[in-house]
Amino acid sequence: MAKIGPTSFKYILHAKFTADSLIDKPDVIGAVFGQTEGLLGEELDLREAQKNGKIGRINVESSSAGGKTNGEITIPTSLGMAETALIGAAIETIDRIGPSKATVSVDKIEDVRISKREYIMNRAQKLLEEAMKTSEVDTTELLQKLYEEVRQKEFVEYGSEKLPAGPDLEDSEEIIVVEGRADVMNMLKHGFSNVIGMNGTNIPKTVIDLSRKKIVTLFVDGDRGGDMIINSFIQQGHVDFIAKAPSGTEVEELSKKEINQALRAKVPIEEYDPSLKRESAAPKKQAQSTPVEVPQEIKEKVTPLVNDIIGTRGAFLVNNKFEILGRIPYKGVEDAILNLENIYMLVLDGLVTDEIAKAAEESEITYVIGSRVLASSSSVKLLSYDDIGYKYR
Prior knowledge:
The protein has 393 residues and is α/β, with parallel strands linked by helices. It has three domains: 6-111, Ribosomal protein S6/Translation elongation factor EF1B (Alpha-Beta Plaits, 2-Layer Sandwich); 164-276, Dna Topoisomerase Vi A Subunit, Chain: A, domain 2 (3-Layer(aba) Sandwich); 296-384, Cytidine Deaminase, domain 2 (3-Layer(aba) Sandwich), CATH 3.40.140.20. The chain is 35% helix and 23% strand. The protein has helices at residues 25-36, 46-51, 81-91, 112-134, 139-152, 181-189, 205-211, 224-236, 256-264, 269-272, 296-309, 333-337, 354-362, and strands spanning 11-19, 59-65, 68-77, 96-97, 100-111, 156-158, 163-165, 174-178, 195-197, 215-220, 241-244, 267-268, 314-318, 324-329, 345-348, 367-370, 381-384. The strands form four sheets. Strands 2-3-1-5-4 form a five-stranded antiparallel sheet. A five-stranded mixed sheet has the order 9-8-10-11-12, sandwiched between helices. The protein has a five-stranded mixed sheet with strand order 14-13-15-16-17, with helices on one face. Helix 8 (224-236) links the parallel strand 10 (215-220) and strand 11. Helix 4 packs antiparallel against helix 5. The longest helix has 23 residues, at 112-134. The radius of gyration is 25 Å and the shape is globular. It starts with 10 loop residues before the first strand and ends in a 9-residue tail after the last strand. 34% of the residues are buried. The model is unreliable at 1-6 and 277-289 (pLDDT under 50).
């Protein structure tokens, strides 16, 4: 059996069970494997997933009283949130454990990475208190270093050049390319995790290769150096949008509000330089072929929503009165809308993918609007910003 190390866990699934008679832990393990077999296909079969190191050791804690047995099942996984949720739903179908009737219900799915960050902050606070007790220190300087250390935990080194990047770079269809490490740190500080730095004015091969697979926003300083990087990037890689810091400022200096304003003001490369009209290299799929008639009311009501969502890596849930029901992260759109009702429209800061389109169909959503449409649907109207006449500004 392949082993899964604790550092590779992403989630831990916690489930509670009740059985009508006295049972042992092996009965519970047997029920988990036996009664879920074949439910989710070979890829998510628990035996196969454990052999392949995708789930860890299944732990069972139980106690008996009054002729009944109650307990908890925990399953660590290195799978994504959606796959872990499917496994949770599968084990809830268990209706017998050993010789007795039983019920199983998922209590929660714990994000281990959040727990680690909480531990880091709590431990850092204790270390700071100890340091302040033993010596006279500059509190402001210590706090600044503390914040920087915590932010750096989010860093990954990407590619052969070990470029500074955010943890969601690989999984994101759209990425933000900035100039250097300090820019990446500031972007991470303000919640932008689909970012990578070039570490200078030369365009690394890793970034050039990424630009041919992703939708790229090049975000540069508001100076002559930023203009030079734009010109160099255009000659070597593929860029879809250009965003610039305010004149005379650098990306590493910007507040969250200023970053959002700069990203909302990004312009398509064809608008920045009309001589570069081309199809973006990032989307490999064709958008839906059937033109969509867009009522004028939709265009008028949706344009302000698009303006507000751009640059946030989020999505608005909207009802049929064009009221915002809530905002969710783009990364969790599919899971969220499958568990909600009465959604009329989804407005995305990102691509309309096949996965999002399928989830929207199941949730009976009428409109899905994103930066580009890379999917098709028989029941959902999939629109791009261009379809509603949105002008980048």
